[in-house]
Amino acid sequence: MIAITHFADDSADFAERAQTALTVLAARPGYVRGTLGRSTDDPGAWLLLTEWENVGSYRRALGGYDVKLHASPLLASAVDVPGGFEALVDVMPGGSAVIRRSDREPRA
Predict the structure, then answer these.
(1) 8 A C-beta contact, residue 62 and residue 46
(2) Is 39 left (phi over 0), alpha (psi -120 to 50) or beta?
(3) What's the total number of domains in the chain?
(4) CA 67/CA 20 separation, integer angstroms
(5) Residue 72 placed within a domain
(6) Per residue in 50-100, pLDDT tens?
(7) Are the C-beta atoms of residues 52 and 59 closer than 8 Å to each other?
(8) What's the CATH code of the domain at 42?
(9) By CB atoms within 10 Å of each CB, which of 48, 74, 86, 105 scores lowest?
(10) pLDDT in tens, 4-29
(11) Does residue 108 lie in a domain region?
C-alpha cells in the first residue's frame, strides 16, 4: 500500500517536522519505507510518500501514540486529495515487472 500526502507549506521547519513524522511512522509494524520530497518548481510544495505492507498496517500505524503526537499534526495540514493507493505494478531496473492483483477485483 502506498500513501501519498501533499503539502503546501513554506515554513522553515517543515522538513524537520516531516522527518520526525517519518521517524515515528517507521517505528510502526508494517512500515516498508518513506520519502519526503520537495517540488522542483515550487519550494512550498511537498510530498510525503510512505509504503506499507498492507492497508491495515497503515491504518493501525495512524492510531499509535507517537504517531498521534508527532505525525498527526503534520498530516492534518495536508492538501485534501486522494492519498492511499494500491501498488499494482512494480518495474525493476532492467524492466522485469511484478504485477499484483487488486484488492478491488472480485474474487473467483
Answers:
(1) no
(2) beta
(3) 1
(4) 10
(5) yes
(6) 999 999 999 999 999 999 999 999 999 999 998 989 889 989 899 999 898
(7) no
(8) 3.30.70.100
(9) 105
(10) 999 999 999 999 999 999 999 999 99
(11) no
